[in-house]
Amino acid sequence: MISPQSLSEQERRIVAAWAADCAERVLPLFEAEAPSDERPRDAIARARAYSRGELDTADQIRRRFIAGRAAASVTSAAAVAAARSAAQASGVGHMGAHALGAAAYAVRAVSISDPTRVDAELDWQLEHMSAEVRDALRLLPPVGEDSAGPFAAGGLLARGVLGSTIRMLQSGLSTGR
Description:
By secondary structure, the chain is mainly alpha-helical. The protein has helices at residues 9-31, 39-51, 57-62, 66-70, 77-90, 97-113, 118-127, 131-138, 160-175. The termini are far apart.
């Protein structure tokens, strides 16, 4: 049985570009610490290429962990969160829920680097969702209510700041924030 967190391939392609946009906004936090490490930038570019149909799903799934390994090459929490945001964007080819993961890690990176910008970042993310992105993301189960996967009650994206951020984003899908 396919997880409701997966979304269809078409829906994953729709949300991948938005996830890449979210990750790209915090990429400078990673690159300030590791300017020669291109793994997060490459992951963002691959998410965009996937959204345009230029990469097949199987290839994107095979390569989704590359940017996540870049998080181990930096020390600041903001740079780590930025690398994880790129990794989540890259993971959208595998599971649509990772689009909200990319956004949540971007907010985490912002919250560490400049806590006064968190609300502005959330607003930007919601304002830059197309109607198609909103429609696709509305298909995801509420974070913490699925039995498995990153949105499961104990899942990676359901806990702490990430879970709170995703709850705010999911709430904003219908209210506009």
